Each structure stands twice: as C-alpha cells, then as structure tokens.
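Example record

One chain of 174 residues, shown exactly as stored in the release files.
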Amino acid sequence: MKQLFFVILNFVGIICFAQNINSDDYANPNSFTPPRFGGSDSAVYAYIENNIYRINFNDNSNFGKEFRGNAYLTISKNGEVIRSRFESGNNNQDFKMEMENKLIRMGTWAPAIRNGDSIACNVQLSFNYSMMGNKIKISNFYPVEAAVNMKKNKLLKVSIITICIAIIILKFLL
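Predicted structure tokens for this chain:
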C-alpha cells in the first residue's frame, strides 16, 4: 500500500510539473550577443540626452538635482523597441511619459543574437541624470544589461522534490 502511494504521488508530481522542452531552449552562454544601439553603450545615453525635453514640466523644484533612472526596454528580434518603462526618483509623470515615448521611438537596435539567430531581448539602462534647463544632463551611466528568458529543465528537480516529499510522508505513516 505504501509503495503504491509513493508511485502515485511521484506520477502526479511529474504530470503536474512537466514542461515541454525543446533542444533550442538550451543556449550556450558564450553564444549570446546583447543588442546594441548605435554600436556602443554611450550612443544610447547620447540619444537620451539629446532627445528628452522637459515638455509641460512646470515644477522647477528638481532643477539641478541628481536622480537615478532605470529604463526597461524590450527589443524585438527585428531590433525594434516594442515596450518601454521608466522608473526614477523624479516622480513627475509628464517627464516619465516623455521618457517612455522617446525610448519606444528611438530607432532600430542591432538585435540580440543567440546561437546565430536574432532573438527578442529585455534591456535595462541605468544612469544618473539631472534637470538642466529644458533638457537632461546624464552624469554617469552604466553598461547596458541584457536578459533573455531561457527555459531550463525543471522536470528532474521537480521529480527529486516529489520523491523527497513522498519519503517524508511515508516516514510519518510508518
């Protein structure tokens, strides 16, 4: 009876947590090339500095103050920005909307490459900036960080966890 319980519990665990796994889901980390805009990280930040204006920004209380900004972009496999989000210590919504609108219209990137194929990729841009007149001044920027959602084989881990749980339950039943 206890062996049957163990077999059924393991079978249910495998069915509940099984995933479809393709050989393409395993990427060699050395074969990944992140997306690039204008050939270098500095080109991205130059674009931001030259194209972001303080439209409808009536509050001058932030003039000259330095803020940390994080822009999150999704670059398609064609190199287009298909999604943008901006976060900052500067809570002005007009500025945030201006930043997100300019980022999504920034033009074509060289797409990320994995195993020789163009792929969609998430990008994070981090920089320090300050409001200077009707423009922003970037004082420090950090390398563009790229992340690709890569599937991993979780079936083995789930099976091991299920077996451990079954052993613990069986010990309590004995």
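Notes: The two ends are 11 Å apart (CA to CA).
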